[in-house]
Amino acid sequence: MPDVIGIESELSHKLSDPTYDSASRFTMVVDLGAIEGNYRKFRTLAPHSACGAVLKADAYGLGAARIAPFLGRLGCRHFFVADMEEGIALRDLIPSSARIYMLHGIMRGMEPAAEHHDLIPILNSREQLDAWLRHCRLRNRPLPAGIHVDTGLSRLGFPIDELQKVVESESALSDLPVVLFMSQLACAEWRDEVSRQQLYRFRKLTHLFPKAILSLSNSAGLFAGCEFHFDLIRSGGGIFGLSTSDDLDFKQSQVVRLGTRIIQCREVEIGEAIGYYRSYTVKRRMRVATASIGYADGFPRSLGNRGHVFIYGTRAPIVGFVSMDLITIDVTDLPESWTSPGTVVDLICPEQTVADMASAAKMLSDELTTGIGRRCRRLYVSAQRDDMRHQ
Ligand SMILES: *Cc1c(COP(=O)(O)O)cnc(C)c1O
Q1: Residue 280 sits in which domain range?
Q2: What was the pLDDT predicted at 25?
């Protein structure tokens, strides 16, 4: 085995240790220590704001059930999910004082369950506002809600003029405890005029909700300038090491590794072809390793004949099409002793970060991780403390 040092070798070693990985085919290793580091850096970079965690889509595919309580222990008190199902799943995992906001708001009929599970809807429209107010009247209690205003994404949230009209005309709104007033930036990464215009529009409305926590920025918005910070940052990709921001002040720690194993290795003769539809023709005698991950697991099909993997830190090309459950790798140039069945194949690793693999596949980093399927076991480690835990 080649010389490898530090935590990387530690992780590969443990990934290949049968006590950690006997049954599963492949594993996503999530480094909680790196999440902690990123989260703390965010808090330092926006010292006058709270840092909320966006845990939609199962914490971007990393596993909300483990990450939510971990962030709760770090002091995080604001959690964002897409909808009620995601919110209910989190409620008992985090302190009862922590708030869970549902970004999609409320649909008619969901109000009692939202109240029962102590979930705060972010109201996006007149219909949602009416539904929530109706429920409050029915229960005869003012129940907290958030308000989302659309300042330039044209996706969710009240259009500005409609919100102003509602605030002016709706006396009932004055009884509603609006605990969060938010908007979402369309292209925070670019730090351009669009963001400034959204900031300007948002700022002109904040006086409407004097008691609310104000929130405009996602991870990338944090770097657009401190005038974008307000009371609360909503961060997902930034703390999970998936952010597209290239800010020099923030070198995010890599959180995710993805590894699988070789099932079989074979010689293939000149003139033969590899994989479905024989898209790769063999031009020299080759050794080809077959490893267990495929498009059914969210591995990008576009990496067939284009992507790379790493075996003991050495780059090896993917040859042939990506199958449903398998990929084939050219290992001709690797020592035979490195390619026996069971050998770990690194897909996302220090040599090939999630951003590298995503860009090779013309995807976003979080698009890649949210697509990794349930067959992939999540393993939680803390590189700093070196305590391995199972999921
Ligand atoms: C997903 C989402 C976020 C988090 O965005 P990141 O870029 O991953 O930090 C913040 N706010 C809203 C409304 C979102 O939908």
Answers
A1: 4-25+254-390
A2: 74
Burial class (CB in 10 A: 0-12, 13-18, 19+), 154: exposed
Residue 42 CA to residue 228 CA, distance in Å, equals 14
Instruction: Give the SS3 label for residue 63.
Output: coil
pLDDT, tens only, 45-88: 999 999 999 999 999 999 999 999 999 999 999 999 999 999 99
pLDDT digits (tens, 9 = 90+) for 105-123: 999 999 999 999 999 999 9
**265 CA to centre of ligand 1 in angstroms:** 43
Q: What is the DSSP letter of 292?
A: S
Which one of 150, 187, 229, 234 would you pick to mutate in the ligand 1 pocket, going by the greatest count of ligand atoms within 8 A of its CB? 234
What's the pLDDT band for 226 if we cut at 50, 70, 90?
very high
At which of 180, 205, 235 does a domain end?
235
Instruction: Look at the chain and report how many structural domains it folds into.
Output: 2
Is residue 382 in some structural domain?
yes
Ligand 1 in contact with 234 (CB < 6 A)? yes
Helix (H) or strand (E) holding 346: strand 344-348
Confidence of residue 129 (pLDDT cuts 50, 70, 90): very high
Pair (117, 204) in one structural domain: yes
| Placement of tokens 């530090």 in the chain | 6
Arithmetic mean of pLDDT, 277-302: 97
For residues 43 and 149, membership in a common domain is answered with yes
Whether residue 54 contacts residue 218, with contact meaning beta carbons closer than 8 Å, is answered with yes
Looking at the fold, whether 231 and 370 belong to one and the same domain comes out as no
Nearest atom (ligand 1) to Cα of 60: 8
Burial class (CB in 10 A: 0-12, 13-18, 19+), 227: exposed
CA atoms within 13 A on the CB side of 89: 19
